[in-house]
Amino acid sequence: MIATLLSLLLGLGAQPSPPSSARERALQPVDMVSEGTASEHGAQAPRHEEGARTGEGAAHAGSAGHGEEGEHEGTVAEHIFHHVQDEVWVPINFYVGAHHFDISITKHVVNMWIAAGLLLLVLAFATPKRALVPKGLYNLLETLVLFIRDEIAVKNIGEHEARRYVPYLCSAFFFILFMNLTGLLPIPNVSTATGNVYTTVVLALFTFVLTQIAGMRAQGAIGYWVHMVPAGVPKWLYPIMFPVEILGLFTKPFALTVRLFANMVAGHIVIFFLIALTLLLSIWVWPVSVAFALGIYMLEIFVALVQAYVFTMLSALFIGMTQHAH
Questions:
Q1: How many structural domains is the chain composed of?
Q2: Fewer beta carbons within 10 angstroms: which end of the chain, N or C?
Q3: Is residue 294 assigned to a domain?
Q4: How many other CB atoms sit within 10 Å of the CB of residue 228?
């Protein structure tokens, strides 16, 4: 574009103006020289314009190439997020008066159904085989349940009240674990439900509601809120500390939500991106791409267990914090 403008300016500057006076006619030879120079420039102008057009064409081709590359990368990114994001399988919408309700069946809902179904099948298959000396699948389940009861509930809530909340902690642990693991299975159009922030929000809200109920049950409906501010704080700090403590009630479920959601989504995105390197770079990088993706996949199996444990442990910790006044 710059070369084109320069060639046009040179062409305009080289055009001679017709003589309008005798003095200008007397200076005709000088103008002839200018005209000769102008004609020379005029002869060279097409070359400049041709070069400008060539440069503009090259620039256009380069921009087209970058556009195709960006479009290719955008397609790969969209393909990766397509496997992570939720998607409607069966749309179910209805109105009750002026209110619209959407209870569509999505791939994350299907993942929860699969996880719940497998969990029920495993429990139904393992629990009838109880024995004095457990073995097999029942032995594994009993080990996990005893670990949740003794190492998580009792140590964080207290031995007196721990058994009351063990059923919820076990339910949260096994449900999250099975959702994480079934999300790693190569099932078409199904992805991890815990990679959906709405799923983790609901799980965190269960812990939040149970935490408040446990606190009011242990300290009384009024005493729980009265003892919200730690003892020993000066009275003049109460207007500051009470809103801070109330805000702290909501930061706990927020931490549960973001931790579980971010860890599960990040792992899946890394796996898909490593596989997509064969499209972004070259097909010949597939040995390295597949090897790294397989390593991250093995790590995701461990992360699935760790995230279920962390959610359960923090839930027990938050419940235990409400059992006694500060």
A1: 1
A2: N
A3: yes
A4: 20
